[in-house]
């Protein structure tokens, strides 16, 4: 599913947001923010709308935009951004989805080897402007919203504005804020976020190793481990709910048990720990050879890590892992975690009895899924799966760790400018009153 598409515009001017509506339906905002979805080029609809989105092939007149086939799924309540100069429509919110994300910034102060959204040093203040405009239009029945970037905490006051707007207009909507946690090393920052008193917010913080050298290497930022750990402790101290996120790949899988024991002993206050599969896009694709391992080949380490965390009383989740790649004991921890707009299943999944319970694959992973995909004959299953019945995982491709042969990836040089430009933002935060 695409969220951005080029199309034919018969209007110009600055970019603007609009809520998609069917003709004759009640609208939540003023008409200048209405995009009327119509089967034909009916100019009378412009009396109550800023723009008419024409689904048919009629000749367009002033104020009309062709609905591109890639966005034919648009429906009432969706929010889109029109960019006339680029002839582009971008979908910001889909009322039918539970995977909507507020994307706050492209900038980041880390450059993780597996980053799926490589940072860019661009002026993107308009992103938060758009989000603050859009939040009042989002239905109060929305169950969950993600907040992500880039690194949202770089925005400080603007992030707080978004949290406050969400609390005011969407008090029943869960927020899941993704952050590398490094700026929460400033206790005052954590206190300010806690002071918003959002009723249902979780902060997801990646921790990729139990040692500073490994974590700093994986996020390509010296001192990041200490900063993130201090951030985690500060967030726990002010009572915010925390999710620790570990991405499993060739550089992290061997020490999953040690990582789990470290978290159990030092971060017992976190709400949950999740193990995530690699999304093969962005820097993860750049570093693919160094990071890729078939998930079937780290099941033993993953099971030990999950066992230790569960024994310590922590809540555990496994994200982005197809069910047939997980050992039977791990399947209960799996979630359908992949956002609907980038989620696919393989042709063989059609016959799988677990299809409705399985997360499937990222679109970007479909060309390199695993050598162990096996449809289930029935679900819930005992051990009818070929891989699960074959016993402990065995490396399937003569794997050797980059750590073993000294061929670690050299890092993401393209992110250096971004990191240096974020330092000024960080230094301002050190003086939070
Ligand atoms: S075969 Fe079944 S369990 Fe495996 S990825 Fe496809 S739907 Fe999921």
Explain this structure to me?
The chain is α/β, with parallel strands linked by helices and 433 residues long. The protein folds into two domains: 4-93, 3-Layer(bba) Sandwich (Glucose Oxidase, domain 1), CATH 3.50.30; 101-322, Aldolase class I (TIM Barrel), CATH 3.20.20.70. Helix content is 24%, strand content 17%. It has helices at residues 125-134, 157-169, 187-195, 212-219, 224-237, 256-266, 283-286, 288-291, 299-311, 402-405, 416-429; strands at residues 4-6, 9-10, 16-21, 34-38, 51-54, 64-66, 79-83, 88-93, 101-103, 144-148, 174-178, 201-206, 241-247, 272-276, 316-319, 343-344, 361-362. It has an eight-stranded mixed β-sheet, covered by helices on one side. A seven-stranded parallel β-sheet has the order 9-10-11-12-13-14-15, with helices on one face. A hairpin with a 4-residue loop joins strand 7 (79-83) and strand 8 (88-93). Helix 6 (256-266) packs parallel to helix 9. The longest helix is centred in the middle third of the chain and has 14 residues, at 224-237. Bound molecules: iron/sulfur cluster (SF4). Residues 322-324, 345-346, 348-349, 352, 354-355, 358, 360, 373, 375-376 line the site of iron/sulfur cluster.
